[in-house]
What does this fold into?
Amino acid sequence: MKHKITLIPGDGIGPEVTAATLKVIEAAGIEVEWETINAGADAFEKHGQYLPDELMSSIGRTHVAIKGPISTPIGKGFSSINVALRKTLTLYANFRPIRSLLGVKSRYEGVNIIVVRENTEDLYSGLEHVVVPGVVESLKIITAEASTRIAKFAFEYARKHGRRKITSVHKANIMKLSDGLFLECVRNVARMFPEIAYEEMIVDNTCMQMVLDPKQFDVMLLENLYGDIVSDLGAGLVGGLGLVPGANLGDGCAIFEPVHGSAPKIAGKNLANPTAMLLSAVMMFQHLGEVEKAALIASAVEKVYATGKVLTADVGGSASTTEFADAVVQHLVN
Ligand code: NAI
It folds into this structure.
């Protein structure tokens, strides 16, 4: 079966990790008709829009996309296209598996954490204004509807995949109303899943606990901002951002993308690690029912790490992005 998939290469290292991923997908023999349309600053130059209508109608047709990172200007300029895509398409669950890979040197072994991040509200509402010069207000929006929806997603995932515990992360000692509401909604859902252990942890302690003993965590459930920070912390536990894939899931469609950003310092140098993008593609093909081919790619990536000869610089090697992709292709058949 030929899949129709929207492809958003992104910018910075995006096009490089995308090219590496496409090479592996093709070599794995998965048939795809790509609808390639970019977003962000590159798209603005071409289409006069940061989030082109053409891209939105493509996702409307395909219901599935894979995306490279897109840069967002700091402190000025256009708002995040990543956030806009997630909100516009109601991709309410940001799902990020953080797993140790055999052969990657890191301080920990056997980490296997699922980060479930609420993707549509919180301080990412983008509602900011100057009250008077020198005073700015930024609104943190938490609703019962979105909190309950993400809690159900996390518990249903845990039930379906035999995960033992959910840790809900918060700062309700300080933000009593907003994080308080989030916790109340999660507790209501937790009661419907008595077989899954449930605990709550304040976000600052959570960060320390992750560094001390990451194996105590199973599924972590977080609001948008805490989820953003904790997923990068989690990536650091298993060897870095080059390794961690992600999925933005909603009821109608899904966008798969690495956790990392556009890494401007290494962009255009053929140095980026394409693993996060490749493993995002693996998740996408699982979602599309290409379970065997997805497993084939995942296993080829694992073999490259287990062999340890062709690794990119972020994980202690000296291979280029393309050399890593070629090594994965080699392991698809061997
Ligand atoms: P970043 O993830 O781009 O980089 C953080 C660090 O990780 C850098 O040292 C970078 O070199 C390294 N790194 C990231 N991915 C790597 C890879 N595949 N291989 C090797 N090293 C890798 O985060 P940063 O610097 O905070 O953000 C840069 C830009 O990316 C910003 O414009 C930001 O808005 C955007 N961004 C976009 C995201 C998305 O499209 N989903 C997510 C996060 C950031």
About this structure: The chain has a mean pLDDT of 97. The longest helix spans residues 144-160. Residues 1-92+245-334 form a domain with the Isopropylmalate Dehydrogenase fold (CATH 3.40.718.10).
